[in-house]
Design a protein that fits this description.
elongated, six-stranded parallel beta sheet, 11 strands, 2 domains, Rossmann fold, formyl-coa transferase, domain 3
Length: 402
């Protein structure tokens, strides 16, 4: 069966992304059918270079850059900048996640590029935006987590702030960038004119704090209230809601409705606990969180992880085993749905990679191609799209522009 056609088929994207935010945005666009051309500097984008250090750095690049083509162009040279301008004339989207001002200094900012292609959608991601007092601040996932409040809400109340394990600020920004680009393409279909779209890591991450922000906004909060709730609900407004130790691991258990509690309470302490007036309503349970955690912890510790999960799922109580990463990459649901698959990579051999979480039409996912080698498609792109001659390409190579 042939690979399904994505909704962005026929859209050409120049991907100047680096590390995670830009890399992931380009990957989502590519797996949606766009022709994504990754424009890299002479020694490759940062994530590719990181792989030379060793360890697991090669995998994120392979994971985030499948289904793209790579060209190698030195944009710091005038000849390289002109190659890029030629590509812009023949493209629909350009996006980058450099520090604000970098593209302008190269003469390749939005104001420059829209002069040569008024239909261009130009996307940018930065830590804090092109305006505002933080615009010059260096931004990586850790620094944005610190600034936006992720770290102050992560960890246990009696412990120092802790970063979230995943690079959530980078990936939230990447997802929002794809949304903004898609919306701008819809607007262009109506007006015939492109536009600039901008996403910041700070602003894309802030809404994820919704539960904890409820504590800030509540009028009766106490001055010494901690926003680090451990594994409890960020707003302390769901109960029970925690991670409990089993005989062979940990299980996450929570009750969103009163019926959830009746079902869980029956398992933990029989009908007497399930109908106890002290725990009947959410406000009562929230006020007695500590008591409930002691009861549930004792029940859980006497059983293995899967037994607990099986019992709870049978009565529709939200729960999940706390898995280690080796278990996660073997997840049967993601393998069955095609989200995870084995890819024969020309450099790394057979590796497990993820597809895009975005499904279209009947849900069949397109084929995945391996991440490209640095500049692997330079000649083909310049020949097929721009019509450069063999001599012109040889001259650019001789000048080390490509």
């Amino acid at each position: 069966m042939s690979s399904p056609t994505g909704p962005l088929e026929g859209i050409r994207v120049l991907d100047l992304g680096q590390i995670y935010a830009g890399g992931y945005a380009g990957f989502l666009l590519a797996t949606a059918g766009a022709d994504v051309i990754k424009v890299e500097p002479p020694d490759g984008e940062n994530l590719r270079r990181r792989g030379k250090v060793g360890g697991g750095a090669y995998y994120p690049f392979a994971m985030l850059n499948g289904n793209k083509r790579s060209i190698r162009v030195d944009l710091k040279t005038e000849a390289g900048a002109e190659v890029f301008r030629d590509l812009v004339r023949n493209s629909d989207v350009v996006f980058e996640n450099f520090a604000p001002g970098v593209m302008d200094r190269l003469g390749l900012g939005y104001d420059d590029l829209r002069e040569i292609n008024p239909r261009l959608v130009y996307g940018s991601v930065s830590g804090y935006g092109r305006s505002g007092p933080y615009t010059s601040y260096p931004a990586m996932d850790l620094t944005v987590q610190a600034m936006v409040g992720v770290m102050s809400t992560t960890g246990f109340p009696d412990s120092p702030p802790v970063k979230a394990g995943p690079a959530i600020c980078d990936f939230m920004a990447g997802v929002h960038l794809v949304s903004a680009i898609s919306m701008a393409l819809v607007a262009r279909a109506r007006t015939g004119v492109g536009q600039r779209v901008e996403v910041t890591m700070q602003e894309a991450t802030y809404p994820t704090l919704a539960s904890s922000l409820g504590l800030v906004m509540t009028p009766n909060r106490t001055a010494n209230m901690t926003y680090r709730s451990g594994n409890r609900h960020g707003g302390y407004s769901e109960s029970p809601y925690n991670v409990y130790k089993a005989a062979d691991g940990y299980v996450a258990i929570l009750c969103v409705t009163d019926q959830h509690w009746v079902s869980l309470g029956t398992l933990v302490g029989g009908e007497a606990l399930a109908t106890d007036e002290r725990y009947r309503e959410l406000k009562d349970r929230a006020a007695r969180n500590d008591e409930l955690d002691v009861l549930i912890a004792a029940w859980a510790l006497a059983q293995d992880r899967q037994t607990i999960v099986d019992q709870l799922l049978a009565v529709r109580v939200p729960c999940a085993p706390v898995r280690e990463l080796p278990e996660v990459v073997e997840d049967p649901n993601m393998w069955a749905r095609g989200m995870l698959r084995t890819l024969d990579h020309p450099v790394h051999g057979p590796i497990t990679v993820n597809h895009s979480p975005l499904l279209f039409g009947d849900g069949e996912r397109a084929d995945l191609n391996p991440s490209p080698g640095l500049g692997e498609h330079t000649d083909a792109v310049l020949t097929d799209i721009l019509g450069y001659s063999e001599q012109a390409i040889a001259d650019l190579k001789g000048q080390e522009v490509i």
